[in-house]
Every structure is written in C-alpha cells, then in structure tokens.
Amino acid sequence: MVQHIQLPGEDGQLFTYTPGEPSTFPQTSPPARSRRIFAAAHLVSRSAVSAQLPAREQIDWEATLAYRRYLWSLGFSVAEAMDTAQRGMGLDWVAARELIHRSAGAARAEGLQERIACGAGTDHLSLAGPLTLENVIAAYEEQCAFVEGEGARIILMASRALAACARGPEDYAYVYDRILEQVSRPVILHWLGEMFDPALAGYWGTSDLDEATEVCLDLIHRHAAKIDGLKLSLLSAEREISLRRRLPAGVVMYTGDDFHYPQLIWGDEQGYSHALLGIFDAIAPAAAAALQALDRGDLPGYQAIFAPTVPLARHIFQEPTYHYKTGVVFLAYLNGHQPHFRMVGGGETARTISHLVRLFLLADQARLLLDPPQAAERMQRVLATAGR
Q1: Adjacent-strand bridge partners of 97
Q2: All structural domains of the chain
C-alpha cells in the first residue's frame, strides 16, 4: 500500500503528501431519533462498459444495491433515483424504473420499506417535441403509480417538461393540484434550484424567488394533508429558514442544502430542518456520528464532527454544481466501495484532476478515508490514467 503520494499542486509542481490516520467513525449506527434523515444514493457503473450502451446495461446492480444496504446500516433512509443517481444526467426512466424496483425490493427484504423514498417525475417525456400540461400530468401519473406500486414513498421531483411548457404560476398549480389529489400517501415535494439543473430555471412560473416561494407555499397549504415535507435545494440557508417557519403544521422541511446542513439540521429556537442530502452519501459515517451526537443534545460534539466535512461538501458541490455526482462517486471509489472510478455515461470526466486531488486532501483532513494508504494508491492510479 502507498504510504506517501506525489500530488500535483495548484502551481503544477509536484509535492509529497502523507495521508493521516484512518477514519474512526463507526461503520454501523441506529437511525437518528430526533430527525428524519435521507441520503440520496449514487449509482455504481460496471467497470469496462461503453457509455453508448443503454443506462440500465451500464449499471453494476449488485454493487449499487450493496451501497444502499451500507447506507441503511448507518441508520439512513435512502432517497432513490434522484439527481445523485444521475437522474436526467445519464439515468433515464427505463433504468430509473428498474433501480426503483430493485431498491424497493431490497428494502422489503430487509424489513426497511419505510426507509426508502423514490423520485417520480416526467423525465420520459421528450423535450424536443410539443408539450402540453396534460402530457406532464400523464407522465407524473405514470411514475407516481409505479413508485406507489413498489410500496415506496414518492418524492415528487421538479419537472423539466413542466418548466418548458408552463406559461405561469397558474399552470404549476393546475398540474400539482391534479397529481396531489391522486396520491395515496403524503409525498415529499422537491424544489430543485437551477444550480442543480439549469433546465429548471424559473420554476413555479417566475424567476423571482420571493414570488416562487409564495406559489410553492400556497400549494403546500392547500394540500397539506398530501404533503409530508418539502425538500428545498436552493443553497440559501436564510431562504430555507424563512420558508420553514411558514410551513403548515404537519409539513416538515427536508434540507437539500449541501453547504449549510449542520446549522439547518440543528436548528434554532423556532425549529429545525430534517434532511434529504446527496452529501450524506459521501460523508455517511461522519454524518451518522454527528446525528447521534444531536440525539444526545451534544452540540460541541455535533459541530466538531460536521465542521471539517463542510469544506469538502462545498468543494464537491462547487460550480457547476450539477457535476457534484462525480465527487460523490470518486470518494466512494477512494473508500473501496467500488473497484473503479467509472460512472454511467462517462460522468467521471466531468471534473478536472486538480478538483479530484483537492477532494482527496479534504476527505483526508476530515478523516473520511477508511483506509488512507489504499485511498492514496487509488488516487495514484487516477493520476497515472490522466498522465500526471
């Protein structure tokens, strides 16, 4: 195993780096008692496969399901077939449908059917042809029926198709009213900002976030009995806190803020956020330990665990934010959860070598590397492949 590694610095010059001690975070944990916590899980690709093949043929199903079992063993619920799983960026509805079926089946087999929720959207609609609101409604109905048929909770994903054809807030209200009237159990409503998906710019029928907030809140208040919570992914702690305080009784906030999660989950004198986060896939053992500290009311312990993970999270989710999946998969590779650094659709090329080197350093400094010599050896392989 590699004990020292030569890494390229920002100036292009090589420097010698010695990884620190391995992670000491427990590798199993009970679920958090005081918060509802979902980790949005990534896909594991097959090792040597053409990016031109259909997405379902590129997936290593055994390793993908093994990672979900790993997250469950750390106490997390799993948010399946979301943007972390490359939904809309390599994962089409055909593959997402199989992923949902397999993951929901694995959850049932483990007696964990209450600890999985799955994304239902409209991504099998082509954006190239004419789109109508009725097309969007039918697409949502199809995917929602499938998720409920698998016994999973629905995460009602934002729709690119709706963003493309809606003329204003009233069209969003019309579509969501139709869908929420039909679901059999409360859903998690997902508001994904354009930094995660540029095709969702102007969601809720306006580019003014204050106006969009009012449209979203009006919908939630009218359908509070059909909405478990709102997952908000706008990377603004202030906006999340303000919106959280205005939710009706019984509807919770699930933070999707991968920059400010420690403060939002701990909360303040007026409340707190639950969580549905892609970064918890990458930092799962640390997050599980921090959440156990929260359950004990141990704020210093909670802060001490989470604080060094925030620079890593900000790096993984740096602009263009939608390429964060590359960093999540790279860290899983460094930690031995998969034997290669490959992604469905060739997504491993979306970040530069310097980005990956910085990720390696930040993960080590946060004590998130399970086996630092092995991680260094794998970092060395990636550098060699890139000719560095």
Answers
A1: none
A2: 32-322 (3.20.20.70)
Rg (CA), the chain: 20
Task: Answer for the pair 116, 150: CB distance below 8 angstroms, yes or no.
Answer: no
- What's the farthest any 2 CA atoms get from each other in the chain? 60
pLDDT, tens digit, for every residue of 20-77? Answer: 999 999 999 999 999 999 999 999 999 877 778 889 999 999 999 999 999 999 999 9
Cα 179–chain centre separation:
23
Residue linked to tokens 């949005």: 40
pTM over 0.90: yes
Region label for 345, one of left (φ > 0), alpha (ψ between -120 and 50) or beta (otherwise): left
CA–CA dist 92, 86 (Å, integer): 9
Residue 175 has what DSSP assignment? H
- At 80, list the tokens: 């399946």
3-state class percentages of the chain: helix first, strand second, coil last, to nearest 5: 50, 15, 40
Which among 339, 302, 280 has a CA at the least distance from the CA of 79? 280
